[in-house]
Design brief:
The chain is an alpha+beta fold. Helix content is 28%, strand content 25%. The protein is built from six helices and nine strands; from the N terminus they run αααββαββαβββββα. It has a nine-stranded antiparallel beta sheet with strand order 1-3-4-9-8-7-6-5-2, sandwiched between helices. Helix 1 crosses helix 2. It is globular, with a radius of gyration of 32 Å.
Length: 283
Amino acid sequence: MSRRPSRPVRLAACALAAGALLTTAACSDGSGGSGAARDAAERAGTASPAGRAPAAQPTGSPSTGPAALTESGAKAALLTEGDLEGDWNQVQDADKWRDQLLVGEVDVSDFLTAKTDASDCQELLDGLYGEKLLGEPSGPSAVTGFEQGDSRLLDQVADYDRAGLDDRLEWMASLPQQCDQFTATDSGGEKRTVQVTEASVPDVGDARDGLRVTVQGTSDGSPATLSLDVAVVRVGTSALTVTGGGLDGDQADAVEQGVRQGTDRLKTVLDGGTPSPQPTPMT
């Protein structure tokens, strides 16, 4: 006949049973019953109300998402000559580019709806002239530019307030209707005809929008037409803006290529990597 364990030994066994959720074990002084074990486990927060062991909890650190854009990252995300086909040459003063054909006061009489439409069109011209189409960045930013004959390609990368950035993209999407065609007059009284249409943008990034803007006026006393393609792509809270064109005609193909390569570079930076010195093959 086996010897019955002493009371201290039985109590220790009960505590271990409760901690391991052995709900079917009898932990008492000999009176039996599993309810005491369940009660102890539930008070310790180690059992579900039904007496079952809870599902295993996930372990490990949660994903932190894309890295924040830094000054060095914004510069690394900029396009290089190797990212562009053709004879584009990188310049050092792109942040000082200003095209005088974009300077002018919008004629409110061109609009049949409200002065707010004229205000939006004025904001478009001013944004293109001052290279601030998306407004002021809220974080790091960088800019570079390229020239090919009388055409230019401007690449801007910056971090913005997310809500403000989405608002600007919605605003851009409204411009082809609100600013379809209007007149702007410069300080000398010269009138320019401005047309705004929608432009396609590759399906890259988290959100995107594109515009084509043409300005008919004079340059050095001769008739001239400035053609610009503008594409904006949002990646997280960062965005790249590629603007290309000039008096030689539009540069839609160069802008599209710049958007594809630029988005790839920006994603690489935000993922914590370093863009390759060689461009990613286009698909």
